Description:
mainly alpha; 5 helices
Amino acid sequence: MKHEEIKTLIAAYIEGELDKKESLLVEAHLRECAGCRKECEELNQLEEVLNKMELRKPSKDTWDVYWSSVYNKLERRIGWIFLSLGVIILAFWGGYQAVEQLMTDPDKPLALKIGILALLGGGIIVFVSILREQLFFRKKERYKEIRR
């Protein structure tokens, strides 16, 4: 095997993932190549350090704060959903009432009626477009976890 192929096998050798033939090839190369031997020693040391490491368990206070913040975030999101839903319903109801009164008023000129309907229609289209775009891109946002 070539030097570069052996270098790619060193980590697997340390982990004991190689078959007997590959292990013998790596061992033979390590006897001859000081650079790979040094790399193997460094990886062994790193492996030892990693095996000694332990994760600390969070305290009860940390868990209490965590679950409290999760509950608060969930509560706020539900609140924003209901608030937004109420505003949307009231806005559409008000818009419907305004359009109905505008259309039934014979004193208003046709150009004014068409202009207001075009304005409302365009606003609704832009609103739906932005809402759809935000919902679509929120799922694919790569940086949503990053806060300033």
